[in-house]
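**Entry details**
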Amino acid sequence: MDGRQWVCSQARGDVLEIAVGTGRNLDAYPPDVHLIGIDLSPAMLGLAKARARQLGADVDLQLGDAQALSFAAESFDTVVVTLALCAVPDDRQAIHEAARVLRPGGRLVWLEHVRSPFAPVRWVQQVLDPLLVRLEADHLLRDPIDHIERESFTVERLERSRLGFVERGIARKQSHSGWPASSRLTAEEISSKTVA
């Protein structure tokens, strides 16, 4: 399963895809999710809408900025980002916004180009980064985990490609009590653990 398919297969419930682009991920989502996709580019959204029609996909595609989401706090169960944070001007703010719109226990699922932990690969990235930022607005030396760990997330899964420059992961938003919602025990579970 490729990275995009893996990320989209993790989506549950009310889903927001940030930087949906041309809609390349639309056919990879589980059929039972309620999907909203945003993008900053009207041209990209036009292509995504055409793709959604072609696929018969029930998706709400909207103009939107990852750095200033128009949705109320705690609106989504899953936020998906694939190969987009490397191009968002302020990736820290985009992750902060993702945390804001996720419900407690909701998940941020991502696939990104990141800075490699391996010096020879990172050196090539450092050489190419200024050129790619200028030509493509593509930052090769970012890593979303830097910002994810500063937000109210618990990283549940983090995987890297062999050379370390592609990363995918899942982070769960902590509940208001500070624990991931999936980690809270019910009263029955607590009593059964103390009795046993």
